Amino acid sequence: MDAQKDTGLCPGCKEPYKVGDFEDEIPNYSNSALSLPGPDDAKRGRNNNMSMTKRNQSGDQFDHNKWLFETQGTYGYGNAYWPPDDVYGDDGDGGTQKGALESGDTPWRPITRVIDIPASIISPYRLLIVVRLVVLGFFLTWRVRHPNNEAIWLWLMSIVCEIWFAFSWILDQLPKVHPINRMTYLDVLRDKFEMPSPSNPTGRSDLPGVDVFVSTADPEKEPPLVTANTILSILAVDYPVEKLACYISDDGGALLTFEAMAEAASFADLWVPFCKKHDIEPRNPESYFALKGDPTKNKSRPDFVKDRRRLKREYDEFKVRINGLPDSIRRRSDAFNAREEMKMLKHMRESGADTLEPIKVQKATWMADGTHWPGTWATPSRDHAKGDHAGILQVMLKPPSDPLMGSTEDKLIDFTDVDIRLPMFVYMSREKRPGYDHNKKAGAMNALVRSSAVLSNGPFMLNLDCDHYIFNCKAVREGMCFMMDRGGEDICYIQFPQRFEGIDPSDRYANHNTVFFDGNMRALDGLQGPVYVGTGCMFRRFALYGFEPPKADKISEKGSETEALKTTDFDPDLDVNLLPKRFGNSTVLAESIPIAEYHARPIADHPAVKYGRPPGILRALVNH
User: Fold this and answer.
1) What average pLDDT does range 66-80 have in this prediction?
2) Lowest-confidence range among 60-74, 218-232, 235-249, 415-429?
3) Cα–Cα distance between 458 and 399 in angstroms, integer?
4) Distance between CA atoms of residues 468 and 495, nearest Å
5) CA proximity to 167, closest of 185, 140, 194, 145
6) Residue 499: phi, psi to the nearest 5?
7) Where would you find the membrane-spanning parts of this chain (predicted)?
8) Cys-Cys crosslink for 244: which of 336, 423, 557, 614, Cβ 3.0 to 4.6 Å?
């Protein structure tokens, strides 16, 4: 404890302890980011560097510690960054760090963090794997050395099966030795991309755009009400409205799905502002109104109960309209088909034809405006069947404009001071013809990617099944934390875990897939990354096009550590003149690829970001 006093010798440098002098005036660091203490600070007599122990040594003993403690190395712990010596100034007082951080008035902070599983939990599991592996080795050795000569073929078959099962068990266990957890810092993401500043007084977002894809195929097997609830949860997600777009792919080409989506877009005019006003979670209407417990918990607005009661009534009417669409479409089509038969009969009478002959009129499916539905009809015919129909693309909610605050006029709910804009919503049904393989869901994703590249061109894409809704409204922001953090440019996709509703509390049949999502996927994340499970995955558009991130040997230093790369540095085929060879003759699609790549880059606010974009470049751009 001699370090607490003014006496004694340091066991490292063998110098008497000295208490450093505190400066009366604190330097002003408001104009630049604070730096980590340099390696030379240990020579300036800081009292927090004093040793807490003292070692007794004889005077004639050679002191090795002297040479160990006076190293000039600049090693840091974890993500610590030691600035070069020239940033401290000539007087050696530490100064401020100018080489590492140049992102404004605040120091650079990471947006994500990797948290290892505690050793008290993972070490016994690893030991158990080793013990089981040793026992398995002894067992297989004994089985091989003791054949059954009376049934050699059965013995041989059992040995092959046991060795194969042992090999598959090893492959299943090895990825589980290093599971990890990940943490996101949404406050840092907001400060970095959406914080108001003199150059951005309104706090316009600098986040890249996200296109959300929903796939459905048959309204008879996938109820339109479930799909509509999924769409509503997407439209109400907590993300900048002008940076979000939702696309639904109807592989069945059914009018029922089309009109159900039109009803959902109409109901979103009430549901989305209600979620923003009262911070609703989850933002799936069916799941929210089915929650058990006190709905007023953590709600501070006095009009919440009144608003919730009115919206619950509107949602009940919305469900009645959705569930009544099949009968409504059938009655409408029967009426229009009867009218066409009357027209045909009148024409036959005027032309003098035999009216006793059967009237041949196509049993078409009619839209509300009195025109034929171009997709699949209830009575299939040529050009109107599930595998033979034209392509359909309808923008149901137009791209949002400037912020638009609500009012009390002509509204059931008071949305004053609430942004009532809605994200862009597009219905799409790709063309299908006999003799051409449509590749099922992969073909639907291809059509969604190509059409969205022309309409919104979001640098990132999130695909969902029609029965998988967004439970956490900030999930898109959390995914963006990984993409926009240091090293995020190398991430191809982010797989979100799945949770299921309507399962018995005991989950006796393991329908929650807890072992897979919480065990296997987290373990794979500790190695290279989880696998893609088909839904709930956020892709980088540029990676989905087949391009790879730039290699380290392709990065050319041109006087700046954050030199922006050209698009050809990623792939030689990214030249606009060569893109038609891979992506067809669409000029708009070819021109959108370099733009999507540039918008997906993280901000160049750290020396580790070798190919970023300037801060604020997306604030003046509207993705839609």
Assistant:
1) 36
2) 60-74
3) 13
4) 14
5) 140
6) -130, 155
7) 125-144, 151-171
8) 423
Q: What is the mean pLDDT of residues 435-442?
A: 90
Whole-Å CA distances, 105 to 34, 80, 101, 278, 499:
9, 19, 10, 33, 41
CB contact set of 518 (below 8 Å; sequence gap of 6+) = 497
Task: With CA atoms as reference, report the closest residue to 252 among 371, 362, 377, 372.
Answer: 377
Provide the mean pLDDT of the chain: 80
- The answer to whether 225 touches 257, Cβ cutoff 8 Å, is no
* Type and span of the H or E element at 453: helix 440-455
Tens digit of each residue's pLDDT (9 = 90 or more) over 377-434: 999 999 999 999 999 999 999 988 777 887 766 578 888 889 899 999 999 999 999 9
Q: What is the pLDDT of residues 316-353, one digit of tens each?
A: 999 999 999 999 999 999 999 999 888 888 877 887 77
CB 244 within 8 A of CB 483: no
What is the number of alpha carbons within 13 Å of residue 619 lying toward its C-beta? 18
Q: Quick count: other Cβ atoms within 10 Å of Cβ 449?
A: 19
C-alpha count within 13 angstroms, C-beta hemisphere, residue 443 = 13
Does the structure show a pLDDT above 50 at 37? no
Q: Name residues whose C-beta falls within 8 Å of residue 295's C-beta, 6 or more positions apart in sequence.
A: 308
Token pair belonging to 335: 């009426």
By the 8 A CB rule, do 601 and 491 touch? no
Nearest to 221 by CA among 195, 245, 250: 250
User: What are the start-end ranges of the H helices in 101-176?
Assistant: 119-145, 152-173
- What is the widest separation between alpha-carbon atoms in the chain? 132
| Gap between the Cα atoms of 246 and 260, Å rounded | 15
β-sheet bridge partners, residue 249:
215, 428
Residue 529 pLDDT exceeds 90: no
Q: Find the Cα–Cα–Cα–Cα dihedral 66, 71, 75, 76, rounded to 10°.
A: 50
Whether the pLDDT of residue 40 is over 70: the answer is: no
Percent of the chain predicted with pLDDT > 70: 76
From CA 82, how far away is CA 349, in angstroms rounded? 95
Q: Which of 197, 193, 238 is nearest to 617 (CA)?
A: 193
Residue 539 CA to residue 210 CA, distance in Å, equals: 10
User: Does residue 566 or residue 363 have the better pLDDT?
Assistant: 363
* b/e 129-161 (16+ beta carbons within 10 angstroms → b): beeeeeeeeeeeeeeeeeeeeeeeeebeeeeee
Q: Per the annotation, where are the binding residues for UDP-alpha-D-glucose?
A: 215, 221-222, 251, 440
Residue 172: CB atoms within 10 Å: 11
Close Cβ partners of 45 (under 8 Å, ≥ 6 residues apart):
18, 19, 20
Half-sphere exposure of 228 (CA within 13 A, CB side): 28
- To which residue do tokens 């099962």 refer? 165
> By three-state DSSP, how is residue 499 classified?
coil
> Could you tell me which of 85, 116, 194 has the C-alpha nearest to residue 616?
194
Q: Which residues participate in the annotated binding site?
A: 215, 221-222, 251, 440-441, 465
d(CA 164, CA 314): 59
Give the whole-angstrom CA distance, residue 622 versus residue 617.
11
Sign, CA dihedral 438-391-388-219, equals positive
Residue with tokens 């994200």: 423
